[in-house]
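Hi W.,

Here's what went into the run:
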Amino acid sequence: MNNMNIRSLGLGIMSLVLLPGISVPAAATETKLKVLVIGGQNNHDWAKSTPYMEKLLNRSDRFQATVNNTPEPNAPPAAWDAWQPKFRDYGCIVLDYNGQAWPDRVQKDFVDYVRGGGGVVVIHAANNAFTGWKEFEQMVGLLWRGREYGSSLYLDDDGKLVRELPGQGRGMGHGGQYDWVMTVRDTGHPITQGMPVKWLHKKDELYHGQRGPVENVHILLTAYSDPAPGRGGTGKNEPIVWWVPFGEGKVVTNLMGHVGELGCLECVGFQVLLYRSCEWAATGKCATSLPNDFPTADATSLVP
Ligand code: ZN
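Here's what came out:
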């Protein structure tokens, strides 16, 4: 087991931090940030969550979001031949997808897009997808994979990063669903700027023991996985939001967002994270200011 201070992972982007309280009015920005949301297959209710995230993004005057879903499971090859998302037309791609492997041609376009500086935001079960697609696994870093598949990270009670090697330590999974407290671990990052260090997220499914290549994983927020009866967690501070550099691009993964009920996506904390993650992955900056109704350590805050 290898203990490292989280700071030792290298957070070399401090020069991009905006001053607290500063937001850029839409009128002062050249154009809206174009975001593509991809659903189409998932073991979760993507038909609810994909259009909902599109709606959330378009509610902010910062974004122009559209959806381009994959063909349905077992669609004929011709349907896949016709599916050619133009990643380069967008500043950020939001993945709400957990299904069949994409065609080689689309995988290559996607990898080239990220390598060339494109932004990606991976939501909840989208980190379950694409087992064996090495570039995808590298850019996500921690995925829903078996214990032998890769290493894992958590933060100990002192906030120190602990790395578990393949085959060691806790396996991947999730406990019950409940309201959980998010803890900001990098208060200087543009995505978390100004957030209370602890804030309460609305009932959601808390993943634990995610596995992967774990190269250059920068953890932004964790949640304590409660081992109490009925909750079934690990008793560890599990990474929930992190980012990984890939070529010139940036990939932000957010494990929140199990949709059965929409409550977890109605959480103002989730919404701010979605906005800022898209902005930051695309531009390295965040202009979305923290709303007054942001959740506190004791109270969730929902906007349908
Ligand atoms: Zn889930």
